Amino acid sequence: MEDARGLLKQYFGFDDFREGQKPLIDAVLEGRDVLGIMPTGAGKSLCFQIPALMMPGITLVVSPLISLMKDQVGALNQAGIHAAFLNSSLSMGQYRKALDLAREGRYKIIYVAPERLETEGFLRFALSPGVDISFLAVDEAHCVSQWGQDFRPSYLKILSFLEKLPRRPVLGAYTATATVEVKEDVLDILNLRDPLVVTTGFDRANLFFGVKKPRDKYRELESYLREKEEKMPGSSGIVYCLSRKSVEEVCYQLREAGFSVTRYHAGLSDTERRENQDDFIYDRRQIMVATNAFGMGIDKPDVRFVIHYNMPKNMESYYQEAGRAGRDGEPAECILYFGAADQRTNRFLIEHGEDNQELDEETRRIVMGKDLERLKQMTFYCASSGCLRHYILDYFGEDSGTECQNCSNCLEEFDLSDVTEQAAAVVRCIESCHRNFGINLIVDVLRGADNQKIRQRGLEDNPEYKALAGMTVPSLKQLMNEMMMQGFLNLSNDDYPVLELTDRSEELLSGEKLVIKVPKREEKQAPKARKK
Ligand code: ADP
């Protein structure tokens, strides 16, 4: 029998396995369940494709995305491996034919959408005499978890499907999400038996991480691209926007400004999407402006920068999208443009978007709560003055130790500023409001704004009215963000998010110090509290 390394070379053309691949493959071949947690681009697919070639019978790969299945099956067939996919993109006739061929043993690997598993036709196939499913690989396994960013209730069907099979296949689960909750859910819900768990490092040392808060995002982008053009002519990059509309606008403006640019979003025809994608991949266009619909299953090694024109909805999405830069291991930059509106837009999308429509009311409420919590963590990333890489790795449960010196915060010069007094004023202000208000109103009270909202609620009489009149709105919001990050304040997940005190808030009134880092160039704006 061919060995795994031989197949790696023969079918995929690679000489060596990457970190984590070999142990995950060997375990499956020995009949042991596995959980592979590896960042995007690390090469998870080979971890189930190679054992699939070596085991008797058929391998089923459960995968959530039609586009991903198509791409992977296309690539496998091109490499000379018989594979097929079964999902809603097939007509009834095509679907039946594929199942017939599968029954005849034509395919070594079958990709299947989770919804299909328990349909009558598929079960009939799976239970046919002579059909031997020896290995079931669950790709994007975080979809089983309500803690994952893409919870799919249909993933919960995997276990009951397995129970119907005459012989339980070896089970492999693969994901790029490494948070503790997700990992435990995957192990539990899929009921992996004595699995080998392999987690490869999430750090991508060649990537520079940056956060900017430009007044004018477009101008910032244009000058960044000009500089790139000058210093590294011809380098490729992706600009991610939150909406199709902004993709259109940014792409149009860049084209007018003379850049080699194309675009991608779900509103374009299949043909145009394919063409634009190819233009980017084959370097006919340098810049791809896209929504998050772009990128899954695309492997362009030499993407030199990924700019997020808007903050994405969570760290998982951010790291996955940013991680498309620098797959070749050469230096690349991942820069996020943060604007206050980004948080509102994301909130709106979480509350009203299509993502969770298929869920029942109760589950939707739970999922939405978790989505809002993740949005908060994403916002903290943008507000953080600490090492950004440290923040990312910490989020994914990895201890990163010291500062990286390769992110905008590590390179920025900061002064330490003791803001205990100001933070205490915030706490007292919220306390004396006797009911909860949102950030903007509390900012207005502290700065002593004279507007209708303040007057209507009699907030001029709040003892902290004007207490922080000397601070700018952004620096006051930054202070509140810092307080939230350090657990002195909380922003509720209600329809109208309100500021709440926490168990720790009182500490600021009784001696606990709050020191924040203020960028040196903002020194002049260092906050001042009014003496009482
Ligand atoms: P993931 O699913 O983890 O995001 P993929 O399976 O799509 O990653 O692999 C990412 C890229 O890495 C693919 O282009 C794949 O061909 C390549 N790759 C995977 N394993 C190896 C290897 N051992 N050597 C070189 N390239 C590899």
From TrEMBL:
In this protein, which residues make up the domain named Helicase ATP-binding? 25-196
Q: Which CDD domains match?
A: DEXHc_RecQ, SF2_C_RecQ
The catalysed reaction is: Couples ATP hydrolysis with the unwinding of duplex DNA by translocating in the 3'-5' direction
- What NCBIfam families does this protein map onto? recQ, recQ_fam
By what name is this protein known?
DNA helicase RecQ
InterPro entries, per database record: DEAD/DEAH_box_helicase_dom (IPR011545), DNA_helicase_ATP-dep_RecQ (IPR004589), DNA_helicase_ATP-dep_RecQ_bac (IPR006293), Helicase_ATP-bd (IPR014001), Helicase_C-like (IPR001650), HRDC-like_sf (IPR010997), HRDC_dom (IPR002121), HRDC_dom_sf (IPR044876)
Give the Pfam families listed for this entry.
DEAD, Helicase_C, HRDC, RecQ_Zn_bind, RQC
UniProt organism field: Anaerostipes hominis (ex Liu et al. 2021)
Query: Which prosthetic group or cofactor does it need?
Result: Zn(2+); Mg(2+)
EC main group: isomerase
Report whether Metal-binding shows up as a keyword of the record: yes
Q: Which UniProt keywords apply?
A: ATP-binding, DNA damage, DNA recombination, DNA repair, DNA-binding, Helicase, Hydrolase, Isomerase, Metal-binding, Nucleotide-binding, Zinc
